[in-house]
Design brief:
- With about 210 residues, this protein is mainly alpha-helical.
- It contains nine helices and two strands.
- Helix 1 packs across helix 5 and helix 2 crosses helix 4.
- The longest helix has 19 residues.
- The radius of gyration is 22 Å and the shape is globular.
- About 5% of the residues have low confidence.
């Protein structure tokens, strides 16, 4: 086999450099243009429709929103190298697991997690909670930021989602019945995200 003049680390470094190069420039003009036809996340419907920024805002209001988005993007931490390494290892960042360590009334450490895609949810949660408990024990028991109100455990949340979905399913029909059934199945671990997405793509919804 011919020996190459580069290593795997060199490939990772170049991928990270190119990812970093796509960060926003010093002006918000490109950010503004990219937002025009993009959907506002909180307005998205189950069929992935929703208001675009240009439909919801105009003039100075849209300018102000673009400036805020640009500031967030420009000041975002550069995790290009981490992102490349995670992808190379086949790990997927979690949006559900995070530990923040506070000091002097502000965050001083924040830990994010990435997992093997097929790792069970209960194993992920146990792992993160174990790390959090160890940190709290080492730092006196009050360093970890508490983001949930008392009683708002994952099991409580999923139980309520399951109850709501069950009642909504009884009150709907057609595509809506099917979609609410997917929510119920997801809440009770009866289907995977991939399977639910595939079913959702085939559902037809009525629009008023």
């Amino acid at each position: 086999m011919t020996e190459t003049p580069y290593t795997d680390a060199d490939l990772h470094a170049e991928a990270a450099r190119q990812l970093h190069a796509h960060r926003p420039g010093p002006h918000a003009t490109i950010t503004y243009a990219a937002m025009l036809d993009a959907r506002i996340e909180s307005t998205r419907t189950p069929d992935c429709d929703g208001l675009t920024w240009s439909e919801a805002l105009d003039g100075t209001d849209l300018d102000a929103a673009a400036d805020k988005v640009h500031a967030l993007a420009v000041n975002a931490a550069d995790t290009s190298e981490w992102a490349v390494d995670l992808g190379a290892d086949g790990l997927v960042p979690s949006t559900e697991h995070e530990i923040t360590v506070n000091g002097d009334a502000k965050p001083i450490i924040r830990m994010h997690f990435a997992f093997e895609p097929d790792m069970p949810e209960d194993m992920r949660t146990s792992f993160v909670e174990g790390i959090g408990d160890s940190i709290n024990d080492a730092l006196g028991g009050d360093a970890i930021e508490e983001t949930d109100e008392e009683g708002d455990s994952d099991s409580d949340v999923f139980a309520l989602i399951s109850c709501l979905a069950s009642r909504l399913r009884d009150a709907t029909d057609g595509g809506e019945y099917h979609a609410v059934g997917l929510i119920y199945d997801l809440a009770n671990g009866r289907t995977t995200v991939a399977e639910a997405r595939a079913e959702l793509a085939d559902i037809e919804f009525r629009h008023v």
